[in-house]
Specification:
By secondary structure, the chain is α+β, with helices and mostly antiparallel strands. The strands form seven sheets. Strands 5-4-8-7-6-9-10 form a seven-stranded mixed β-sheet. Strands 22-21-25-24-23-26-27 form a seven-stranded mixed β-sheet. Helix 4 packs antiparallel against helix 5. The protein is globular.
């Protein structure tokens, strides 16, 4: 039938428009299959190069966020099937479908085969999407593109056939039953393509040159002294947030065996700190070159209880005959705190030739008072200057990629190194082997030093070697019940204490090997794992659920403890994952693995006999003397002045607030509900109003409306209050552990009525639930 306006067109379904529609659908399908083949080749090249080569190939156009990371997905344990990259298996599939598509113009019955294969690829894509988002915890944009192509295959096949799925299915079933020539040809072609793909993949893998780290000296040293096989952590991909993950050493991402480093969470939790540097930072000064400071610096000082910042000319101190020691530090990061105190004390007592400066970078979203407060809590000498590096300009000029770090500048003004983290670490290799302490002494005495180019990675956990494994209590990930780890094994066997993350690609390489070994050698040793878990996000993403799914789907048989609080992570100085502490039956830390293994069985066979043979008791690890402490006095409800330390003789929450503070008013009711369970577990809640002594009636009146038993101290004086106006940021909460150590500072209002947050606070304070 012709239309009046278009007399030359027909709407008959059997006419040319139908054939044109089929051709159009087949053309789109062929284009998608070519794109899928190209993406498969692209992902396969990256996968092989990352795992079996020098990791010089990267994936472009894929953002690295908390939900998206193409590299993690495509190097995870789930990225291979029987040793062949899954992306490579897609190549023969797409080429077969492409051949069928080209043949379908003349043989329409082949569309049923395309439709069926498309359904299978789409179903497998759904499974891979589940693996990525649940087991791995990240989504790959490139893989998602393949998922979309796979989903489009059956749809386009139906459009080209212009028939119902049932009709296509009946035809395909009949063809398969009779094994007609097109089916035989397709099966043979797929087998040939698959063999060619696997062979090509193996040839490419054999052609790759695996990166061997240049600094190997520490690897050849005994297990008792330094890391058995250290590997440098990768740089953190996101800016550090040192107000309270991960991610202290960072090297170019080209190191394929690098453990996954952690980015510090916003409340000051310890992690490797890779601090953001402005895009316009000056070029890094190479070791041995003259240091000309172009960064504007400011010096902290206190005047009448308030902070004063004044410009400081560091350049005027350089090259004047006296060496300089610049200790780069970050507030709220315990490893940086202990390093600052230890190095400052050593330089003062053992190397007085140096002029010493502590330096802290400040982010745009960070108050200068936060830095000053953390610095003043460390009990450092009053004459140690703290300088502020606005925007991390000097940090970039020194070529730093993390904190803490000590930079040495000799008397002539030349930069010796900016990569010292410990007195005992090796900072120079053969032919001249120097520790951090030896290098510091050489520069102080004006002796010549070798060029310090690449400093081997340093792991704070090595400080535990020879000591008793520190005890901690964490909730079990599955049951939530408290589990105490003491280090000493009741069954007389060594213990592997594994710190890991479910979304760490290097952990996904190590854990499957450990699972296979444990299943093949039951009872050979003990395994306890500590899972580092990120907080849930407002968009619904839950790293906890990802971790639980990973444990469940992999059938992990050993205890998995929940360290979402970061307590054990900080206690053991963990700066990268996976980290495995090797502990003797008596509880002594004998060594550690700081990287995934190519062959874990070999490492176990090498180290396990030494753990069994290790004799003698361990020495107590002890608590660091460098922990920050909060010291000032307050007025009680009876107007008697008392030192804060007398109120924190047990694990405590010290909460700074004010009646004029709106966030405080919103937060206090939920915080007060925590008082009773906190005290029942042996803790204490101490409220301190930052208001002056005359505010007693106002505080009492306000508190009575919240709780008839409300009590709050007020008017902080002395100690920290002399150096800082404590009202600079309220509400603010100090978590103070046993012995008066400051464990953590929370800035702003917190979700005290959130069970997971309450659990984190309880774990940090190491308070145990009481039965009944």
């Amino acid at each position: 039938m012709s239309t009046g306006s278009n007399p030359g067109l027909s709407v008959s379904p059997a006419g040319p428009p139908a054939r044109a529609g089929s051709a159009w659908a087949l053309a789109i399908l062929a284009t998608l299959l070519l794109a899928g083949t190209a993406i498969g080749l692209y992902l396969t090249r990256f996968h092989e190069n990352a795992l079996y080569g020098d990791a010089s190939v990267t994936l472009e156009n894929c953002p690295r966020t908390e939900t998206t990371n193409c590299e993690v997905v495509n190097t995870s344990e789930s990225s291979e099937l029987l040793g062949v990259p899954i992306s490579a298996l897609g190549i023969p599939t797409y080429l077969l479908l492409l051949w069928l598509t080209l043949q379908a113009r003349r043989r329409p019955r082949l569309l049923g085969m395309i439709f069926a294969i498309g359904l299978l690829t789409a179903a497998y894509s759904v499974y891979l999407y589940y693996v990525s988002t649940v087991r791995i915890g990240f989504l790959c944009i490139w893989c998602f593109r393949l998922y979309c192509i796979n989903a489009g295959i059956p749809v386009l096949a139906l459009l080209a056939a212009r028939r119902s799925p049932l009709g296509l299915g009946r035809e395909l079933f009949e063809d398969l039953r009779r094994f007609v020539p097109p089916v035989r040809a397709a099966a043979a072609l797929f087998a040939a393509l698959l063999l060619m793909t696997v062979a090509g993949d193996r040839l490419y893998r054999q052609s790759l040159t695996r990166l061997v780290p240049a600094a190997r000296t520490q690897q050849e040293m005994p297990m008792e002294g330094v890391p058995a096989e250290p590997a440098a952590p990768s740089p953190a991909a996101t800016p550090a947030r040192v107000a309270t993950e991960p991610t202290p050493t960072a090297v170019p991402a080209a190191q394929p065996t690098s453990p996954q480093t952690r980015t510090p969470p916003p409340s000051g939790r310890q992690a490797a700190v890779a601090t953001p540097v402005p895009p316009t930072r000056p070029a890094a000064v190479p070791a041995g070159a003259r240091l000309d400071v172009s960064a504007p610096l400011k010096r902290f000082s206190a005047r009448k209880g308030s902070l004063d910042l004044s410009p400081f000319d560091l350049q005027a101190r350089i090259g004047r005959g006296r060496p300089l020691a610049l200790i780069y530090w970050a507030a709220g990061y315990p490893f940086a705190d202990s390093t600052l105190v230890t190095l400052a004390r050593f330089l003062r007592e053992q190397a007085p030739q140096y002029e010493v400066f502590a330096i802290a970078g400040r982010r745009e979203d960070q108050k200068a008072e936060t830095l000053w407060e953390g610095f003043c809590m460390l009990g450092l000498p009053a004459d140690l200057p703290l300088l502020m590096d606005e925007g991390f300009a000097l940090y970039g000029q020194l070529g730093m990629t993390e904190v803490p770090n000590l930079a040495l500048v000799d008397g002539a003004g030349n930069l010796v190194t900016a990569k010292i983290k410990s007195l005992s670490e090796m900072v120079a290799g053969p032919p001249t082997v120097l520790t951090g302490e030896q290098l510091i002494r050489r520069v102080a005495q004006g002796q010549p030093t070798p060029p310090i180019q690449n400093v081997p990675p340093y792991y704070p956990a090595t400080a535990l070697y020879g000591a008793c494994a520190p005890e901690f209590t964490l909730p079990d990930l599955a049951t939530g019940q408290d589990v105490t780890f003491t280090g000493r094994a009741p069954n007389g066997k060594p213990t592997l204490l594994l710190f890991w993350s479910s979304t760490c690609k290097h952990c996904q390489k190590e854990i499957p090997q450990l699972l296979l070994h444990v299943r093949a050698h039951p009872g050979e040793f003990n395994v306890v794992s500590v899972a580092l878990i990120k907080p849930d996000r407002p968009d619904g993403y839950s790293h906890r659920r990802v971790t639980q799914a990973y444990v469940r789907t992999n059938g992990i048989p050993w205890p998995v403890l929940d360290d979402s609080s970061g307590y054990a992570e900080d206690l053991y100085g963990i700066v990268s994952t996976p980290t495995t502490l090797l502990i003797t039956p008596s509880g002594r830390v004998a060594g550690a693995w700081f990287h995934p293994h190519e062959n874990l069985d070999e490492a176990i066979a090498r180290d396990l006999p030494r753990l069994y043979a290790a004799a003698g008791e361990c020495r107590p690890a002890g608590r660091p003397e460098t922990s920050p402490r909060v010291a000032f006095s307050v007025l009680g409800p009876d107007s008697a002045r008392v030192p804060l330390e007398t109120l924190t003789d047990r694990p405590s929450l010290v909460h700074l607030w004010a009646t004029w503070c709106a966030p405080c008013q919103a937060e206090l009711p939920s915080l007060l509900k925590l008082r009773q369970p906190l005290e029942a577990m042996g803790g204490r809640l101490v409220l301190v109003s930052v208001e002056d002594a005359q505010a007693a009636d106002r505080i009492r009146s306000y508190g009575a409306r919240l709780d008839p038993h409300f009590q709050s101290f007020r008017d902080p004086e002395g100690g920290l209050a002399e150096l800082l106006n404590l009202a600079y940021s309220v509400p603010r909460t100090y978590l103070i552990g046993r012995g008066g150590r400051l464990l953590k500072t929370f800035y702003g209002a917190q979700k005290w009525d959130d069970p997971s947050f309450e659990e984190s606070v309880r774990t940090l304070l190491q308070l145990r639930r009481r039965s009944g």
